[in-house]
Specification:
Keywords: Membrane, Sugar transport, Transmembrane, Transmembrane helix, Transport. This protein is mainly alpha-helical. It contains 20 helices and no strands. The radius of gyration is 21 Å and the shape is globular.
Length: 376
Amino acid sequence: MVGAVVSGKIADRLGRRMQLYIYSQVSWLLDAGRLLIGYGIGVLSYVVPVYIAEISPQNLRGAFTTVNQLMICVGVSVMWLIGTFFPWRTLALIGIIPCLLQVIGLFFIPESPRWLAKIGMWEDCESALHRLRGKNVKIFEEAAEIRDYTKTLHQLSETRVFDLFQPTYAKSLIVGVGLMVLQQLGGVNAIAFYVDSIFISAGFSSTIGSIAMVIVQVPFTLLGVLLMDISGRRPLLMVSAAGTCLGCFLTGISFLLQDLQVNNWFSPILALVGVLVFSGSFSLGMGGIPWVIMSEIFPINIKGSAGSLVTVVNWFGSWVVSYAFNFLMKWSSEGTFFMFASICCSTVLFVAKLVPETKGRTLEEIQASMNPLISN
């Protein structure tokens, strides 16, 4: 959460690439290491999707940004499986390897052309576009659109967090914050962090259940990447949220049957099916699409402040749900999952009513439509 608070301002001051470099290295001393990892993740969770969105062609932006979620899913799954064979100290040392690879790789990538335009480095902006699109690709139209929109935004003052709460940015803020709140309150981290306990409480093998969940997540995340720029963001989000609702409902039914001592042989299987349906559905859209939309809807003059706020809300929601989950389960296991199911159902309605479709549109077009007072 602390990393998320400063993520936007650091990205605006140092650029996207420099921020990725600084927070890719972490200490392995336990307390300091956990603090630094958490801080670094808070920063990177904002700047990575923003950077990807700002460098990607509009027809592939959704897929490219969602690949970030796919790689997170693959990384977590691989480390989960490695962790079954190695102690946590070895696991922590292994984690240094991808950090170092990222540091090396960042020397070979260009800065975000939109950030370069924001600080007035027009030649560097065009140079970055040439590196990203290819030397022989005509980038005049894209560069002109970035330049015109950035000049319009330069007429506005740089915003602070409190300046976000004005009518100009209301729709963007509601959509960005709302998606993050619903993503976390739907129970994803409670299920991810306590999956062993959930399966044990339901009477199912925690090892088999956990491995099955990992196996389900990766292909569904990959499917989401493939569908992102075909089906669009909104349909995928609604299908994903409906699936997480069903998964939570089935898990809640499992615990209800257990409490009523009805079909004791069936309730563990139902818990497994519920968790797998939830994990697969979440990986399909709700895991990555809120970050995609967050990276698309905020204009460059508020992206730092708004991105920090949205990211803080996300991690705060994660903390609240993770902290409260054990207490909720003691209160009522089935009630906890029925509550998560109702929040997931609310997500479907929220997306249907408020979230715009951003597929196939430039960032400038999206931001102008979401913040009409700026475009005028």
